[in-house]
């Protein structure tokens, strides 16, 4: 075999921010502050949803799960990235890289299906409000989350297995700041068209199927909103969906750019920039988009803070 005398790759070295060597301490400070703020806002959201009974509704149940999901997938990426920004050697073991990829794909794929479940929740709330509590009972909500996690687990397991069963004999320099599919595939000594096709099909399944479900939900929602006679009523009804639409646009826009374009168009610098947006910036803005500008949530937060302060005093 031509690879017989070549050394197997046992670790990967991240080069994602190597072109910004003079700014790495500044990037560390900025990303650390953003990460801590994101953790704090998500912790406030989840605590408020759990403690305030007025928020024990399907919409806020999904929001709480979404906040937990975002916290988990940033935890898979950001702490290691922060350490690497200060380290001389930015390395990760072969097994560690596989675990990081599996964990990230599991959480991000589940995230896609969770957004579809949230779209279905908005559809039922607007198009069939009289049966909302029946159609979106607690068991149904838990079932939808479990189905999203099952889909995410299956896709991530198959994808990670396909990627890390490939031979890695040449370079171990990864032009990224975490183990994502495209940069790792680029280092493989050989990969078949079949494995690339399977990975692409799985990407389509994770991104296109949930997006189609969301589109169907919103076609029905828009049709129902247009039947509301008053403009004020139409505005108030649509405003309950606006946050979800913003998050969908950002999530699917970034993910589609990364995972659904031809591999010949791969650009490490573009991928790094887009990846920073959906691993750090999107989880930062999502809590503010969904909750901190929501009057119902603000009232619940004030009640929770008042109750907590009374217990402490």
From TrEMBL:
Q: Which CDD domains match?
A: 7tmA_OR10A-like
Organism listed in the record? Odocoileus virginianus
Entry keyword set: Cell membrane, G-protein coupled receptor, Membrane, Olfaction, Receptor, Sensory transduction, Transducer, Transmembrane, Transmembrane helix
- What kind of membrane protein is this, topologically? Multi-pass membrane protein
Q: Does the record carry Cell membrane as a key word? A: yes
- What is the gene called? LOC110144149
SUPFAM superfamilies in the cross-refs? Family A G protein-coupled receptor-like
What name is this protein filed under? Olfactory receptor 10K1-like
Q: Which segments constitute the G-protein coupled receptors family 1 profile domain?
A: 41-290
Which GO terms of the molecular function aspect are on file? G protein-coupled receptor activity; olfactory receptor activity
Q: Which Pfam families match?
A: 7tm_4
**What does this chain do?**
Putative odorant or sperm cell receptor.
The Gene Ontology CC terms held by the record are: plasma membrane
- Where, subcellularly, is it found? Cell membrane
Task: Mark the transmembrane ranges.
Answer: 26-51, 58-78, 98-120, 132-158, 197-219, 240-260, 272-292
């Amino acid at each position: 075999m031509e690879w017989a005398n070549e050394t197997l790759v046992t670790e990967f070295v991240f080069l994602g921010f190597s072109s910004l060597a003079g700014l790495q301490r500044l990037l560390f400070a900025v990303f650390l502050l953003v990460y801590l703020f994101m953790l704090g806002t998500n912790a406030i959201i989840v605590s408020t949803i759990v403690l305030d009974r007025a928020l024990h509704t399907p919409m806020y149940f999904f929001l709480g799960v979404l906040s937990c999901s975002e916290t988990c997938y940033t935890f898979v990426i950001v702490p290691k990235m922060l350490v690497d920004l200060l380290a001389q050697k930015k390395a990760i073991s072969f097994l560690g890289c596989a675990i990081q990829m599996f964990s990230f794909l599991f959480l991000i794929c589940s995230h896609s299906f969770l957004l579809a479940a949230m779209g279905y929740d908005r559809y039922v709330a607007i198009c069939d409000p009289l049966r909302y509590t029946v159609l979106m009972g607690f068991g149904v909500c838990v079932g939808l989350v479990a189905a999203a996690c099952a889909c995410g687990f299956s896709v991530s397991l198959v994808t990670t297995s396909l990627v890390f069963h490939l031979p890695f004999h040449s370079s171990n320099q990864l032009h990224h700041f975490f183990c994502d599919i495209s940069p790792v595939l680029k280092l493989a000594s050989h990969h078949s068209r079949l494995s690339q096709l399977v990975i692409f099909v799985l990407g389509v399944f994770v991104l296109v199927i949930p997006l189609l479900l969301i589109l169907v939900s919103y076609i029905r929602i828009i049709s129902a909103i247009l039947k509301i006679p008053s403009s004020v009523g139409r505005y108030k009804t649509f405003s309950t969906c606006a946050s979800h639409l913003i998050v969908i646009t950002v999530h699917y826009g970034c993910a589609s750019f990364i995972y659904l374009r031809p591999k010949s168009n791969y650009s490490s610098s573009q991928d790094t920039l887009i990846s920073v947006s959906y691993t750090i910036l999107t989880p930062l803005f999502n809590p503010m988009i969904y909750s901190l500008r929501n009057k119902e949530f603000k009232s619940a937060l004030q009640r929770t803070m008042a109750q907590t302060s009374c217990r402490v005093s």
